[in-house]
Amino acid sequence: MEHIVIIGNGISGVTAARHIRKNSDKKITIISAETDYFFSRTALMYVYMGHMKFEHTQPYEPWFWKKNRINLKKRFVSKVTSNSNEIEFSNGEKLSYDKLIIATGSKPNKFGWPGQDLDGVMGMYHKQDLEKLEKYAHNNTVCKRAVIVGGGLIGIELAEMLHSRHIPVTFLVREDSFWNGVLPKGESAMINREIISSGIDLRLGVNLKEIKEDKNGKVKSIVILETGEEITCDVVGLTAGVSPNIDFLRASGIEIGRGVKVNRFLETNLKDIYAIGDCAEQHEAIDQRRPIEAVWYTGRMMGETVAQTICKNKIEYKPGHWFNSAKFIDIEYQTYGWVWAQTKENEARFYWEHADGNKCIHINYDKTTREFIGINNFGIRMRHEFFDRILNEKQSVDYVLEHLADANFDPEFYKLYEPEIIAKFNNENNTNIQLKKKSWKRIFSKA
Amino acid sequence: MKAVKQTGLVVFLLGIAIFIGTIFTGSFSLTQAELDTFVQEKGYKSEIIKGELSKAIVTNEDLNIFAFSSRVINAYQVSNNHYDALIAKYDAEKNWDKKGQQYQYKIYGKLHSLSFTLAKKAGNGLPADSPVFMWFLTFGLAILGALLFIIPDVVLLGKPGIKNNGIFLNAATNRGWIGWFTFIFLVTFYILLYFYPDLIVNWVYLVDPISKNLSGGEASQWFLYGFLYCTVMTVMAVRMYIKYRHNKYQILRTTSVLFFQVVFAFLIPEILVRFEKPWYDFKNAFPLDYDFFFKWNLDELLSSGGFGLFILVWGVILTIIVVPVMVYFFGKRWYCSWVCGCGGLAETLGDPYRQNSSKTLLSWRFERIIIHTVLIFVLVMTGFALYTFFSGANEVIGIKTQTIQDIYGFLIGAVFAGVIGTGFYPIFGNRVWCRFGCPLAAYLGFIQRFKSRFRITTNGGQCISCGNCSTYCEQGIDVRAYAQKGENIIRSSCVGCGVCSAVCPRGVLKLENGPEEGRINPTDVLLGNDVDLMKLVNNK
Questions:
Q1: Is A301's CB within 8 Å of B537's CB?
Q2: Residue of A22, A61, A444 lying closest to B514 (CB–CB)
Q3: Is the ipTM, as predicted for this complex, more than 0.85?
Q4: Residue B66, CB half-sphere, CA atoms under 13 Å: how many?
Q5: Residue B53: predicted pLDDT
Q6: Which residue in the set B464, B468, B514 is minimally distant from A443, CB to CB?
Q7: Does domain B454-538 correspond to CATH entry 3.30.70.20?
Q8: Closest chain B residue to A164 measured between Cα atoms?
Q9: Helices in B318-438 by DSSP H: which ranges?
């Protein structure tokens, strides 16, 4: 029986294992050094915040793995020897494979800051980071102030986490507005306001110079590069992005760039070795996507795809239209298609913001053809299927606005803003778009 | 604000402490004249009960309720034992005539209920003599304290939004010591209410003035329960309004259950009694209202003229037509979390405990076995009751209808729905009864599962498997298991509380009513992936 070995028990590796099991009888082993069972990394924040217990982050009960004959092994892989089809663990033990899937995910970036390895300095990525956080930032007596370095999704999550335990937080962001490499101006400004109004000390346009230690080797303070200001703190969170977790592959002969280089079939340069998820790097970016995508659902999709290939149904990895979501403290965010931070030459934009400053939509479309390109929605939920269909059918912005009621995914009885949105669009563009009534038939019809 | 909250907690606990302490106060005794009237009203044939009761409770001694209760019960037992001994004696002598005569002297019925009736006449002391004053010291302080504890959350919780911070770090909501104390308190309360009403007669005194104003009569322990139920729901609804003030679905739903509880389950029935009509809760549908087809109820309705007949017809229509039609259009949520009283308490008092329901596959198995057993039980029992009603026979295939009704009333009506159903909130989550026991929920569940427009739609591929939805599902549904596969959630047990949708950080879930076609959408590969792969895998 063919033995499939998967390194990494995150969403990519586990999805691959599940789909291989669905389609075959192969022997499957998943290896992880982090945890016994698969858990949802994105939910770690809720454990610290007390919304959940760690076991709630595990989507499958422990019996699931045995029932589906998926072997779990808690080991640290130190080496892959491809010519003998073997992997070696840090304790010297070896395991042979017929096919190997590398799904080791990411690790937090560190940019060589002085003091970055002190006690009390941590990323927010692994389960072990959560444990460290419980130790160094258990409450606001143990941790009188925390400083977070890096203004991305993990940074704002960590700020929200610490804030939930009433720990004062200073949030250092290199850009002059939060996440403005991704978010256009209006949205980015909205999140700046959300962070500040939640009581977090947001510092925009600043860099970390160094982290200073006390006499016990623990963090004492940080210094800001631009101003030289020293901020006393007990915890420093480094959340300046992530990069593929592939150091153990350096001598393996597997081609490596920033991540493990793969083709569209998720194959590496070596036969029978595949890479999926955050650690995989496409030779050439697919559509407008980045070569490395550290996103939950792309990991899942790569797992689904590689499982087909391994089960004799060789298939290309073809992610569909871009979409994503996040939550910035109390503001939910979804996006379908592309709304770049900067407007491109062929693009026209429409931005509507609610008077309360906590909701907005931002639509991107082609100036000349009026084809819909993408939407950002903040504080209003939208239907994925609707926009997926719109993008497949290359519908126009006018069509989208006309059918905006079909797209709305907010809970029942929520106030609807479509008339206000369309009125603004008509006003700005001299159009006469009429909102169509929501139609279950359209919403649920299979295109 | 924090200080206000803490003060509120102290005031609340003080109110509760006085409330509990009230049980131990007062002194209970009857005059001979009062006792004579009682015995006459009851029409006891026993020749010794009057003497025994007189010895026991016509006294100048200062009896508290415990001493009073045990003396009354002893008196009844002495009387019954006396005749039991005679029965045994004549039995041994084979004197069948004499033996047969003795049975009429025996006194049947629940002894603690008889003791309650006597105690209600016998009380002296603060609760009995100054019920209004004592009401303010107990109910008044507890309500005030609770509100002072709850209302500062408008500020303390921060901006509107999901604020579940610290729920699993708090001993009250994480099965910690406060949770266990609450559990013991609730279970004790229900045991006293159902099985030892005489011991809480002082609490009943507190609500006498309210009862007299509403129905014109004195309060029973059930009036106390109804009043307490409405009070607790109202106070905890304030908490819901604050916690979910960003979520209109939750606000409307809370208002709806509160309205139906206070108006339909409490005010209307009491007012009906005032006009000498049968006590009836118009929204309480059979088989949750399990004694609707009992002979005594049908007899009462049929003897109440046109109005009784109207109730009878309405009760049947409610169960056979209104309930299934509404479930077809809106799912069972229209009843379970918009109308029902049990649901109402679960969604207000129980909301802080929703995360404690078990999500394991094993508990789902138990759930299906237990709830459907209760449904079969209630249907068989109702068959017996109707047979007895129409044929007049007390027995069906050698089993007494009364016996089976008593067993159901005790096991399901009192122990399951009350003691376990509510008492276990802090341990097993707030829908223990609705999830494992309620036969109406089982019936609605069938319709919701097989013939309904209701579903929880999963928003394509947006799910990140975080597990908030499953954690906060009071019915113990593993919502995530469906959402992460892109499947809609179609489960008979879903009561449509809408909290999974509320707590989802990625906008993945939406409760909605749409066409039946495509309601159940099995998917192996999720939306967002390569269209070819989705077709290949999903349409095979």
A1: no
A2: A444
A3: yes
A4: 4
A5: 93
A6: B514
A7: yes
A8: B165
A9: 323-330, 333-336, 341-348, 361-391, 401-408, 421-423, 425-428, 432-436
